[in-house]
Design brief:
heterodimer; A: about 210 residues; alpha/beta; Rossmann fold; 4-stranded antiparallel beta sheet; 6 helices; 9 strands; about 35% helix; globular; B: about 400 residues; alpha+beta; 2 domains; two-stranded antiparallel ribbon; about 55% helix; elongated
Chain lengths: ~210, ~400
């Protein structure tokens, strides 16, 4: 589904990331492991197409990202990639449903209110559709952010440290949601984490060393 | 979801700021609209009233006063001119046509003007009801006079001496309304018209002549006076001859409506320039407050913008979002301002109508108002330009990494 080869990236001349080869098939679920500073977020940003690597190639769904213009890359990202960031950040001026609908709009896809409701219902947020983000608990906000990431049925779902700062039961719940939601839309899932509790739940691991 | 709704959601989120900015825009644009409506109507009105009148001849005095009293019926006349001298002017080869005016009396603040049927024809006015005056003390009333006093054909009223309210009434000389003019949008709307002979007859009572019907015939030519003579030139060349001829060879004074109204507008112009400058300062401070608000909000919205990029928004989409915010705000302010301007103009017009000077209404629409709205929206876009440019340049990976 995606294939990375000879990928490197550096900030201010010092190398922060090196991936010799990593490939995943459609629908697979992966953990991206490594200590802080090993470049997990950087690699996630490259996979998301919001950062262009200094060298090497990144292909997603058969598309070489470096071959896309900036505008085509934005479009590709909106339609094919869902991202759940560590800081969930829903837009405070919009309701939960509007935040999810925004993903359809910005991806240039038809706005389908029924799909928005379906996704919210699947994440147990149907009654929070018209709530503002500041009225949500952390768990609800995380589910809203997952809803926003999966509403366009992405082919690749990325999550950055989704379980940090969560107690054990919430950690397990968050992980369950990501696994089931990714499976529901057939997306390849990559979870970047340094949380040891997650390791046993996902079989495929990609380990980054300190560069 | 679309850009306008997204922009509007941010405007709603900081409602207090938004209200202040809309208010500033509305006050500035409102003042500009008021000026536009008022000066356009005054200008139009003054042009229409002076149209086709090349020269006004009155008694020696201020030429501006002659124009104001004889054409616009706003000021008191400078005095009277001798009938015989007026006849000489009428016979002059440079003159195509003259219309005499005999003023001096009024009714409830509306002027009674003794004149000829030519005066009505000059403004192209038509009768709403009744007919033009034929005999002494028959009067034709303007549309606004009729509306304000409730008089119709058959009504009788006595003129009062002087041009304001409260002069001595001419008790034994009642005018009878024989006709009402249709509204013409000219000075005629505010006048009572009668024959020159009527005015003479009413004033001849002071000299002991009480036979109204034949008073004019009994008067000697030396006793007859006009207040002013409206003159139409026979040729453009007359402009070079006639004023000098009048000013040098008689006790009369010639005044050019074109020149005097231009002078009047240049005097009023100073006031409107100051007001316009004030309005532009308001619009500028509105723009500045929009700029500051957007620029300050950019820091806290940096993450919002980065999120929108991860959802597939292109940088130009973000730029459009911020520009849209500025333009939406200015557009709402502009529309409120135009509405406010019309309201102010109508209120001004109502105050003027109460003083019998009704020439302005707020309920007209000018095509220039679209330019005023465009000006507001343009200023709004300009104020949002720099914040929008910074949104365009947002470094998403960097912003997300910093958290």
């Amino acid at each position: 589904m995606f294939e990375l080869r000879q990928l490197t990236h550096h900030y201010d001349g010092s190398e922060v990331l090196r991936v010799d080869a990593w490939a995943a098939a459609q629908g697979e679920q992966w953990l991206l492991l490594g200590p802080s500073g090993s470049g997990k977020s950087t690699l996630l940003h490259i996979l998301a197409g919001i950062l262009r690597p200094a060298a090497g190639s990144a292909g997603i769904a058969g598309q070489d990202l470096s071959a896309l213009s900036a505008m085509a890359l934005d479009r590709f990202r909106g339609r094919n990639i869902g991202i759940v960031l560590q800081r969930l950040h829903l837009l405070p001026s919009l309701t939960v449903a509007e935040n999810v609908q925004l993903a359809q709009y910005l991806a240039g896809l038809p706005q389908d209110a029924a799909r928005v409701q379906e996704v919210l219902a699947g994440l147990d947020l149907a009654d929070k559709a018209d709530a503002r983000p500041h009225a949500l608990s952390h768990g609800q906000a995380q589910r809203a952010a997952i809803a926003r990431a999966v509403v366009n049925r992405p082919r690749l779902l990325l999550a950055d440290e989704p379980t940090s700062n969560l107690d054990d039961s919430r950690c397990a719940q968050a992980l369950d949601l990501l696994l089931t939601q990714a499976a529901a839309c057939g997306a390849t899932l990559v979870i970047a984490t340094h949380d040891q509790r997650v390791k046993s739940r996902v079989a495929k691991h990609h380990q980054l060393g300190v560069a | 979801m679309n850009l306008v709704r997204l922009s509007a959601s941010y405007l709603r989120a900081r409602a207090l700021n938004t209200t202040l900015q809309v208010l500033l825009f509305a006050l500035g644009i409102g003042t500009i609209t008021l000026l536009l409506l008022a000066t356009t109507q005054l200008d139009q009105r003054m042009r229409r009233d002076a149209q086709g009148i090349d020269l006004v001849i009155g008694a020696k005095g201020s030429p501006l006063q002659i124009i104001l009293s004889a054409i616009y019926h706003l000021d008191v006349p400078t005095g009277n001119i001798a009938y015989k001298q007026a006849k000489e002017i009428t016979a002059h080869r440079a003159v195509k046509k003259t219309i005499p005016l005999a003023l001096g009396d009024s009714y409830r603040g509306f002027r009674i003007a003794g004149t000829t049927h030519d005066y009505v024809a000059h403004y192209g006015a038509t009768m709403a009801t009744g007919r033009l005056w034929q005999k002494p003390l028959e009067a034709v009333i303007g549309a606004e006079f009729a509306a304000r006093t409730g008089h119709a054909v058959g009504a009788k009223f006595a003129g009062a001496h002087g041009l304001g309210d409260g002069g001595d009434a001419h008790e034994d000389a009642d005018y009878t309304v024989v006709g009402v003019l249709a509204p013409s949008g000219t000075v005629l709307d505010r006048l009572v018209l009668t024959s020159v002979e009527s005015v003479w007859a009413v004033h001849a009572q002071h000299q002991g002549i009480h036979d109204i019907e034949n008073a004019a015939a009994q008067m000697k030519d030396e006793e007859k006076e006009y207040t002013a003579l409206l003159v139409q030139y026979a040729s453009p060349l007359a402009a070079a001859i006639l004023p000098r001829y009048v000013n040098n060879n008689s006790e009369m004074q010639a005044a050019s409506p074109a020149y005097e109204t231009a002078r009047l507008f240049s005097i009023i112009g100073v006031g409107t320039d100051v007001l316009r400058g004030f309005a532009l300062v308001l619009v500028f401070s509105a723009a500045l407050s929009v700029f500051i608000a957007l620029y300050n909000a950019l820091e806290e919205r940096r993450y919002d913008l980065a999120i929108m990029r991860t959802l597939g928004a292109s940088p130009s989409r973000l730029m459009a979002l911020l520009l849209g915010e500025g333009m939406l705000l200015a557009g709402i302010g502009g529309l409120c301002g135009i509405a406010l301007g019309h309201l102010f103009t109508e209120l001004t017009g109502m105050a003027m109508r109460a003083a019998q000077q009704g020439t302005i209404t707020g309920w007209i629409w000018l095509p220039e108002e679209f330019f005023v709205l465009a000006l507001a929206v343009g200023v709004g876009a300009l104020a949002a330009l720099l914040p929008a440019w910074r949104a365009y340049r947002t470094d998403i990976a960097g912003t997300l990494a910093r958290g």
